[in-house]
Amino acid sequence: MQEQEQGQELPPLRVAVIIGSTREGRAGEQIGHWFLERAERRADLEPVVLDLVDFHFPARYPHRPTEQMREFSAQVAHADAFVVVTPEYNRSFPASLKQAIDCAYDEWHTKPVAFVSYGHGSGGLYAVEQLRSVFTELHTVTLRNGVSVDLLDGRLEDRDGAAALMLDQLHWWGLALREARAARPYVS
Known about the structure:
By secondary structure, the chain is of the alpha/beta class. It is 39% helix and 19% strand. It has helices at 2-5, 28-40, 67-78, 95-101, 125-137, 160-183; strands at residues 13-19, 45-51, 81-87, 112-119, 141-142, 147-150. Strands 1, 2, 3, 4, 5 and 6 form a 6-stranded parallel beta sheet that branches.
């Protein structure tokens, strides 16, 4: 906040929007791009999509990271904050998302993570609850507020208010943690 007090503008918060499903016929692409449109309307955010369908991770975790793993990890390192767009499959999140998350470790530390979830009935909230445990282990801060889409009733436009609130909170946490990382190294 010192920069604002001195009349300098803060650089936009770099937000990686991770689309976690790789299934054919997935709703995640539509929901992810709907959310991206909302994020792009804000001058204080610089969103980028990391669609996992565009990454080809190995079936087995290799001794040395592949080029795709290194590319994903570099994108995670570059981001200040994350929005994970996840479906709920069998009361959990997809394996493709866990595989991607595990491609990085230190790169996640001290950054906020928000969730846009979807599913039938529960709106993906069971997946989010499991992801909170995973991201806590990675030393992130998960946001309380998110966007939940029930595919049985869902008009995405009805979630605009939830998306705006979540982006406000993500921006606050993203700036606070970016400033903290710049001021002192994190010890894990």
